[in-house]
Amino acid sequence: LRKSQSDDNVAWGYMKGNAASGHQGIDVLPYFKDAATRYNVPLALVIAIGKTEHGFAHETSEHDDGVTGIMQIKVSTFNGARKAAGFDGADAHELKPNLYVGVAYLAEQYRRFNNNYQLAAAAYNAGYGAVINAGNRVPNFDQTQRYVQNVTAIVTAINACEDNRTGPGEAGSV
Asked: How many CA atoms lie within 13 A of 171 on its CB side?
């Protein structure tokens, strides 16, 4: 991230500098921005989750733990959330529905935990029940602790670039 980036390119600069090309070379940057706006969640958080989940890569195969796609969302979670996200009948393995339903689910966690992005990230990773059972704290699971640390580092980097700009930003500070 460079201080000299234009106001409109802070988040995109981060993504481009961190291999944000999607499945089959599709430019996923506009999808990230649109999904963040549509579901009213900070773009910096959406970017951080996308990077932490799978490095912005979209693969259509399902992993042993039942996750797939750019947002590495569980197929069961996708199927439960897709109608409310406006993607009824969509397939979890498709790029755009996977991203949008994943962001809609993230936004649900963000609101559930009073706009606390670290708890939202923990809930996205370990499930909201795990966060609640941990007393509304990040659960003491090694993977979830590392996940939240990674998300925090990315959000902090994006926000630091925004702080060095003049004028209104669009990266969505958290």
From this structure: 31
